# Entry
Amino acid sequence: MTMRFGAGLALLLAGSMAAPPRVVAQELDRGAAPEQIQDGWRTAAPAEVGMNPARLEDLTRSLRRGQHGNVHAVLIEKDGRLVYEEYFSGRDEAWGADLGVVTFGRSSLHDLRSMTKSVVSTLVGIAIGRGEIPSVDTPLYELLPEYAYLLTGEKRRIQLWHVLNMSAGLRWDDNDQSRAWMPDRLLVEYVIDSLIP
# Structure
């Protein structure tokens, strides 16, 4: 199933600031709404939400010229509607292995890593604002009661802000691919076990 990613984000830049992207030959009408597909996004033409289509065309041209580095995708959401969706070609990697130049599209998968921290932090802020999480000072064992048996001793002192700031004390190897295929429950246990007591 084709799906757009990044719900709730005003602007999503996926990629790094490495080599400039190659131009994708497809020319789209920046004044038109992105294609409406069955993925949960409502779309709108930029002008419908007060955006200037000419500015979006300028953005597209500058991205295609490589002025912003190795950008793979840009999605812009305004007023709950997707108004801009564009994909580019550029260098990519998976688990540290160079994949070369890849032509990206809405069904392309990305090795996101650090970008995920920004998304998760935003979602945690929303959850705190809604009262679904008390605060960033909440101990991890209170947020994960089904794993409290693993959060013992010094691990009980770990709070949500430690996790959000990457200061929880994890022993971690980004190149260890063994956990890539773990079921969710085992992955959570693996991560908790990786906390330095």
